[in-house]
């Protein structure tokens, strides 16, 4: 069946270092991928998305990489800051779907050490 | 107000109570969603509404009853819940029902005693 998973439940990094959060997906038909950040007591907040016709997309301090061959997605955060501490979720969806159904992974908790 | 607003933020109810969760979006979006977030589990899609019409019901028990009176408001009516229904219930909206960016509210934390 479909599944979206993250390789590590918790990632601890030093402030100022780069962070890499990984995600594996299983549905070959998925053509849309998205990363969310959820801070304690808040709802998930959109970070960046990418469609399957791209391998890489950059935002402000964040980069998403998509490897369709091995069905792998990663989120890179440059110069990690204490405010980046949160749970990060990846999600996949099918653009042809008319229900907007996103399948979410379980989440990776990013801890930033000062 | 901007974004997606959910009320109440916290709710404690007994198994025989009837309560409702409310969601309001101020983004002009056409699709609205209910998700359930339980500890150590991925976000679970419950319901999808597009232009006030339900387009997906993900095998959710009938003790959860959604209502979408217009494109800006979404309710989740709760009746005869079980303790395992305790979770964070998240409302989201998007421009359309296709796979795209969802804007989430802060959630309603539900505890069923």
* Weakly predicted, low-confidence segments of chain B: none
Overall helicity of chain A: under 10%
Shape of chain A: globular
Number of strands of chain B: 11
Distance between the ends of chain A: 40 Å
Structural class by sheet pairing and helices of chain A: mainly beta
Shape of chain B: globular
End-to-end span of chain B in angstroms? 33 Å
What is the number of helices of chain B? 0
Structural class of chain B: mainly beta
Oligomer designation:
heterodimer
Report Rg of chain B: 13 Å
Report helical residue fraction of chain B: under 10%
Share of β-strand residues of chain B:
over 45%
The average pLDDT score of chain A comes to: 89
Low-pLDDT runs of 5+ residues of chain A are none
Sheet with most strands of chain B: 7 strands, mixed
From the structure above, extract its key features:
heterodimer; A: 114 residues; mainly beta; 6-stranded mixed sheet; 0% helix; B: 113 residues; 7-stranded mixed sheet; globular
Characterize the structure shown:
The complex is a heterodimer of chains A (114) and B (113). In chain A, 0% of the residues lie in helices and 54% in strands. Chain A has strands at 4-6, 10-14, 19-25, 32-38, 45-51, 56-58, 62-67, 72-77, 86-93, 102-104, 108-113. In chain A, a hairpin with a 3-residue loop joins β6 (56-58) and β7 (62-67). By secondary structure, chain B is mostly beta strands. In chain B, the strands form two sheets. In chain B, strands 2, 4, 5, 6, 9, 10 and 11 form a seven-stranded mixed sheet that branches. A four-stranded antiparallel sheet of chain B has the order 1-3-8-7, with no helix packed on it. The mean pLDDT of chain B is 91.
Give a topology summary.
The complex is a heterodimer of chains A (114) and B (113).
Chain A: E1 4-6, E2 10-14, E3 19-25, E4 32-38, E5 45-51, E6 56-58, E7 62-67, E8 72-77, E9 86-93, E10 102-104, E11 108-113
Parallel strand pairs in A: 2-11
Antiparallel strand pairs in A: 1-3, 3-8, 4-5, 4-9, 6-7, 7-8, 9-10, 9-11
Chain B: E1 4-7, E2 10-13, E3 18-25, E4 31-37, E5 44-50, E6 53-57, E7 64-70, E8 73-79, E9 87-94, E10 103-104, E11 108-112
Parallel strand pairs in B: 2-11
Antiparallel strand pairs in B: 1-3, 3-8, 4-5, 4-9, 5-6, 7-8, 9-10, 9-11
């Amino acid at each position: 069946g479909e599944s979206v998973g993250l390789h590590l439940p918790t990632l601890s990094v030093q402030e100022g270092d780069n962070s890499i959060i990984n995600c594996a997906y299983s549905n070959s038909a998925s053509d849309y991928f998205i990363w969310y950040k959820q801070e304690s007591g808040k709802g998930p907040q959109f970070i960046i998305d990418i469609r399957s016709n791209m391998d890489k997309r950059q935002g402000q301090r964040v980069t998403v990489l998509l490897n369709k061959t091995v069905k792998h997605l990663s989120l890179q955060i440059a110069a990690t800051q204490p405010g980046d501490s949160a749970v990060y979720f990846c999600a996949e969806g099918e653009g042809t779907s008319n229900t907007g159904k996103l399948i979410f992974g379980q989440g990776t908790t990013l801890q930033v050490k000062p | 107000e901007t974004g997606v607003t959910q009320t109440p933020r916290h709710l404690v109810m007994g198994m025989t109570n009837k309560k409702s969760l409310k969601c309001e979006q101020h983004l002009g979006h056409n699709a609205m969603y209910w998700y359930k977030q339980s500890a150590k589990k991925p976000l679970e899609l419950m319901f999808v509404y597009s232009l006030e019409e339900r387009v997906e019901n993900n095998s959710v028990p009938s003790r959860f009853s959604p209502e979408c009176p217009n494109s800006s408001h979404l309710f989740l009516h709760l009746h005869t819940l079980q303790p395992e229904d305790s979770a964070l219930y998240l409302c989201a909206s998007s421009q359309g029902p296709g796979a795209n960016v969802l804007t989430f509210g802060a959630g309603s934390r539900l505890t069923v005693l």
